[in-house]
Structure formats: structure tokens, C-alpha cells
Amino acid sequence: MLGLNIKELVAFLQSRYQYLDNISLEIERQYELCKQELALTPIAHCRDMRESVDILLKENESRFNNDYYLSTLEELALLLSTHLSETELAEEVLKFKNNLEPLIEELRQNLQEVNIVDLQHDDLLNPTSNIESTLQYELPKFYSCVLGHRRYEDPLFEFYLKRINEVSSDKYQLKVSDSDGQLLLKLKLILTNIS
């Protein structure tokens, strides 16, 4: 037997480590105070969705710079500033972009309240489609190439485009010459409009 007295051990641990609970409580208190202060600073409203996203990018940075919100806002910025030369897609593009408004408003509301939670309207930016199972290898690679700006590093990038074009019956014609924004926007249209 070691001859340890449980009461002595508990007293020792409390005397040595009780301060960790106090530190944890103080950090939590200061975090909540900071959230309350930030929530009092209003976020500017703007009619233009692209400008709104720029404002929200700055606000996200000053309100704990959440990576999830940052990547969502950067993707929104890219999509909203992208234009397609294919006139036959103009109506679909306009509809897709206008449908992003509830997501942008949700981001604004959450950032205003400093309530960083999963987005309920995330499906507007990341629509699900039946073709995802067909392209389960290509889509993650495509996103990595386009959003990670690594398309020239992946020797199979043209293959990914070819497969996506095949599945979408070449309606959207993703091309190597398209910009990252154009490729991403065309993919979002495919996922939104093709079952």
C-alpha cells in the first residue's frame, strides 16, 4: 500500500489546481464581455450584395476571424464578382446569385450578434445534387484545384473538367481557359440545376 489518504490527496489537488477553474471562468467571462461589446457595434447595411460581403469580411476579421465564415465569405465574394460570357446562362446566374441573399443576411445577423454557429442557409452556397455520387472523386479534387488556386499543379485537372462536363451533358462547358471564379460558378449552377 502506498499509504495515501484520499482526503489529503483531494486537499492537495484542490490547493494546487483550483486556480485553473478560476482562470477558465475568467476567460469565459471576458469572452462574453467582448462579444457583448462587439455586438453593440452595428454592421453597415448595403444594397449591393458584393459590397455587403466585403463589409462582412472586414467585420468577420474584427469579430474573432472565424475560418468557416471567412471561407464562406471569400467564396461568396468570388462568385458575386464573377461574370460568365455565355449569354444563355445569364438568367441562371442571376437567379443563383439572388438566391444567396438569405445566406448573406444570416452571416450579417450572426456576425452582428457575434453568434458564430453553423449556417442554416449554407445549402444555398453548397447545393446538393444527385450527380455528387457520380463525381465523388472529381468534385473534391476540383474544389481543391479551384479554391486552392492549384489547378496548374494537378495534372488531372483537365480530366476533372471533362468528367463534370460529361455528367452535365456539356451544358455549362467548363474550360481550362475559364477563370477560377467562372469554373466555380458553373459548378454551382450544375449542382443547383441538375438532379
Describe the structure.
- The protein has 195 residues and is an all-alpha fold.
- It contains 10 helices and no strands.
- 19% of the residues are buried.
- The mean pLDDT is 95.
Q: What Rg do the Cα atoms give?
A: 24 Å
Outline the biggest β-sheet: none
| Low-confidence regions | none
Question: What would the principal axes of the Cα set say about the shape?
Answer: elongated
Mean pLDDT: 95
- End-to-end C-alpha gap: 70 Å
- Structural class assignment: mainly alpha
Number-wise, the strands total: 0
Q: Quickly count the helices.
A: 10
Tell me the fraction of residues in β-strands, as a range.
Answer: under 5%
- The string of secondary-structure elements, in order, is HHHHHHHHHH
Keywords:
single chain; 195 residues; mainly alpha; 65% helix
Condensed summary:
With 195 residues, this protein is mainly alpha-helical. The chain is 65% helix and 0% strand.
Q: Secondary structure elements and their pairing?
A:
Layout: H1 6-40, H2 49-62, H3 67-80, H4 90-98, H5 101-112, H6 122-125, H7 131-134, H8 138-147, H9 157-167, H10 180-193
Helix pairs in contact: 2-3, 2-5, 8-9
